[in-house]
Fold this sequence. Notes:
By secondary structure, this protein is of the alpha+beta class. 59% of the residues lie in helices and 9% in strands. The protein has 20 helices and 10 strands. The strands form 2 sheets. Strands 1, 2, 3, 8, 9 and 10 form a 6-stranded antiparallel sheet that branches. A hairpin with a 4-residue loop joins strand 5 and strand 6 (169-177). Helix 2 packs across helix 3 (80-117) and helix 16 (468-493) runs antiparallel to helix 17. The chain starts with a strand and ends in a 24-residue tail after the last helix. The model has no long low-confidence stretch (mean pLDDT 89).
Amino acid sequence: MCKVRLIGLKSDIRRTVGLLHEYGGTQIRKIDDGEAKSIGAMENYGEISERLVKADALVAALEKYANGTKANGKSPALRQSEAEKLGREVSRLNSRMDGLANEASMLAESKKTLETFSKFNIDFNALETESLALIAGTIDSKKAFSIKARIGKITDRFEVLHKSVSREKDLAIIAIEKSKAEEAKSVLAGTGFESAAIPKISGSINAELKSNEKRAKEIKSGRASVEKEFTKIAAQDYSPLLALRESLAMEVERSGVTENFVGTENAFIMEAYLPEKNYAEFSAFAEKNFGAKVFRKKISSQSLEEMHEETPTLLDHSKVLSPFEFMTKFISMPRSNELDPTVIFLIFFPFFYGMIVGDVIYGVISFLLARWIVKKSAPDGILRPVGMIWMWGSIPTIIFGLVFDEFAGLPHERILEILGFGNLALYHGFERMHNIETLLAASILLGLFTVSMGFLLGFVNAMKHHDRKHAIAKLGWFGLMVFGTITISTAMFRAFPQEYLLPAALLMVVSAIPVIKVEGIIGVMEIPSVVGNVLSFARILAVGLVGVVIAMILNDLAFPSPEKGLLLFLLLPLFVVGHVFNAFLAMFEALIQGARLNFVEFYPKFFHGGGKEFAPFKAARKHTKQ
């Protein structure tokens, strides 16, 4: 990544920014120069931002009425006067729709109340007089009959009616002289009586319900009419509105980016990053469009590194590697001057995953399930790249399944026997249950290789940073891993000839010197942790064996052979569901443990992360033309 500095007149700044935006291959850098002053945003930045907010609001209002209408890049954007007129019309329709919605809500509540009180079939207005008061409310059904006794202690001039409104509640209405109404309410409060408002209507409840229903139909018709108007407006203006919003968004981006520039009264200075391989193309573009009006200067990647200026990171991979690139970004963006771990993850993760699951049938299930996830997930969703990585992992799963001779826990000759090929054996597999010690050693050796590779990659990274001190320390760690393994395995297990013991031990001590010199006591304390990283790879065997054991139990207890008679109909679904569940469990564990071995045991040996992704200043056109 290199940097380019452009210097020009302020009178050309708008044209310069617009051309860079359309070019779309540079990331504008904020210049932090204490002596130079930021020129700030362009004059119209605030006005355009306000117009963009209004356009966003209009798009949100019309979106659900657009019926899939999309701008095709040919619709001209709305003019400012048209957008203002559209805003007034949408505001009017929104106000009308809100009013109708509020009235519909009030009618629904009123209808509910009226239906409750209609159980009494009386005219409440006729009962309320100057001397008579009505009290209404709900009460526990078991306590409804106690109302008379309680009110009777206050006065004998009253009447109580109650009707059931639910399993546990009754609606009670008490007609009582007004002078005793407040005292009655106090008495009722002690019974759990909850007051309810008596509907204020001019006629009977049934007549009011009919009127209510009529008005509800009118409101429904009114809302449909408003929606029809919205649909008509959306069909006509939604596409041009999207084009307007896009053009305003680009203009806001252009007007605001100058806050990163510095300058004088008449000139501006800006800086931008771009991939060094693209500089020749950019130079030709600048020569054609700017000519001598804008001075440009290139600062190479080597010069930037010497100045210790950290540049953004561009991950430039093929479409095939995009899911693995997603994982790299998800964990941490690599810095521009360190190794990109995307390809490393592509190599190691599927290998770990396949070695853990290690079954042909489970590998096929894994592939089909991952394929289904990819098809069903959104193109920009998190599940899509995970599904793609899962599919990649299914391939070594099938390969290791052939090596281990595992087909849902059965050897291939048993599968051929079921298919009617007798006792035909094509090869003798390396069965995990019979080779536990060998596979344990292989898993630990894989850990040793992976962790050692991590230190070697750390050495390469340090050399790229011109950090020779830490590069030598990483090389020392690599020596400790290799010669320490030879020393220990020769002394304890005689894995190598005895003649190797002394030279390996001496080389191990020599390797420890740069580690201790650079990292001090922390380096010595880190040795057990590194040993733990290596031994952690034993989980490849341990997790894999769990799936094998479960598959064997299912095959022993639930295999649906014909000689089991009617029990076959019970065993067949149990057998299938059991293996699908075991496959899913094995896949889930392999995903988790495979990722852990990469990100916890392997990556810390060479990967730092914390970089910033290259984000070009680019006009994203979807609904407009250049």
